[in-house]
Structures are given as structure tokens and as C-alpha cells.
Amino acid sequence: MLVAGNCFILPAVIIVAALAWLYVHFGGLPAASAILYGVKPVVIAVVLQALWGLGRTAVRTKFLGFVGACSMVAAFLGLHPLLLLLLAGSVVCLTRIRASRLPVSTRSFWAAPLAVATTTATSFTLGSLFLVFLKIGAVVFGSGYVLLAFLHADLVVHRGWLTDSQLIDAVAVGQLTPGPVFTTATFIGYLLGVVRGSVVATIGIFAPAFLLVAASGPLIPRIRRSNVAAAFLDGVNVGSLALMAKVSWQLGRTSLVDAVTLGLAIVSTVALFRWRLNSVWLILVGGMAGLLARAVHHGL
């Protein structure tokens, strides 16, 4: 999927960088604020649609549903996203080993543990920005929307570099481009470090993907043959859904602030699920609805 989408990455990054410049210089203007006011509820609906679609694929058994529910509780209790994914994958993996009584030799497929990199630093530098996005690009798993959980944990909660409102603005801008959700990094990098920050964040988040795709070729046949690997990935999938659910709730609280935004979210959700409308059109409609709502408000 990454290779197929490469032709969209550079144009999308350029578009997002341009939108980031507009956001920084004109985001405080009434018109721009009104557009974002209407777009944010639509973005919440888009994330919910992705969550539902992935859930139908990932939660294939009652046990996976149970692990997903436990993961959601752990996510809301503040467990680090990477540790949550590791635990969810390990639980499903170990349970399947016990149930199938696999040979010891196959149990060691995932012997190398993942490292949970955490830091208490809150000061911003370009070097720390690069390392944050390099880590996120290396460990984020599943749908691109899982990225939101890592961004929220690292940049909003842990470091305090962004607010919830700025994060959902970044996601909204990323939805306007034809490229992957990862282009959100370009927008965030510009907010934090202007042009240099935008370049650093973009390189940081995309570099691991290209390197890992090149290096994983010889591992693919082995992964496909391993029941243990499949079980671990099943657990990581449901853990990813839990992270998406948590961040959807948190960003929804920031975006759904009144009856208008709640109505936009509901209408967008119905349109996505029932008529499968393209999310780009819904975002444009949301922006126009935001402008109309602002005009009506000031006209009263």
C-alpha cells in the first residue's frame, strides 16, 4: 500500500505545508476559524468509519473482542500506546500457544521484545522533533488513524507541544490532500518549527516506512507461515482499535462543542455509513456549513 501511494506523498506533503502556512498566518481569522469549526466534526465521523471498518475485520472472535475491550480500558487509564500494543499482542499470542500447544521452536518467533521509548523532556528542539516522529513512524501499526493515538500521547499529553484543538486541526488539513494520513506530520512540524520543522517531521515519520518495507521482504514468507506471528498481529490489531477509540473520544470532546457540530458529526456519520460518500466532499460541505453557521450567528 505504501508503494502504491508513493506518487501521492510528495504532492500531498507540499499541499499540507502550504495549508500549514495559511493556518499559521490566517487561522485566527473569523473565516478560517469558521471553516475549521465545520470540518472538525466531519473528521471525527471519518475516523469513526475507519474504526468500524477495521473492527469488523479485526474482531473475529469473542476472545479478540475481550482483549480489545480490556485494551480500551487500559488506554483510557493512560497506558502508553506502544506498551498497550505489545501487551495486547502478547496476550493473544500466549493464549493461542497454550490452546494449540505449539512447539517451543515456533514460540520464539517474537523473542526480541519491543522497546518502549519514553522521555520526560518537554523543551522543543528540531532534534527532539525528528526523534519523536522517527519513533512514531517506526512503531505505528495498522490504519493510519492509529497515528492519532501516538501523536496525542507524545505531543499533547507527554510533551505539551500541541493542544487537542491543534491536533484535530492538523488531522482535518491532512484529510484535504490525496496523500496518506502521515502527511499530518508535515503540518505539525510547521506549527512547531516552521519550514525546518515541517521538513524534519516529514522525513522522520516516512523514513522508517521505506526502510522497513525494503528490509521486511525476506521476513514475509516466515511471518505468513507462523501461527504465533499471526496471533501476535491479531492482538496488536485489536489494541490499535482501542487506541483509535480513545483518541476519537478525546478529539470528539474538543470538536463537538454545540448542537451544530454534533449535528454535523451525526449527518456525516450517516452519510459515510449509508451512502459511502467520499470524505473529501463531506469535509468541503462541513467547511461551508461552518461558514454559514458563523454568518447566521453574527446575523442574529
What tags apply to this protein structure?
300 residues; mainly alpha
> How would a crystallographer describe the biggest sheet?
none
Number of helices: 13
Strand content: under 5%
Q: In which range does the helix fraction lie?
A: over 70%
Distance between the termini: 49 Å
Order of helices and strands: HHHHHHHHHHHHH
Count of structural domains: 1
Question: Any idea what the shape is?
Answer: globular
Number of strands: 0
Structural class: mainly alpha
Mean pLDDT: 81
Spans where pLDDT lies below 50 across 5 or more residues: 1-7, 102-121
Computed Rg: 20 Å
Summarize the structure in words.
The protein is mostly helical. It has one domain (6-28, 61-254). Helix content is 77%, strand content 0%. The protein has helices spanning 6-26, 30-58, 62-76, 81-100, 104-107, 126-139, 146-158, 164-175, 184-215, 220-225, 227-255, 259-274, 279-299. The longest helix has 32 residues, at 184-215.
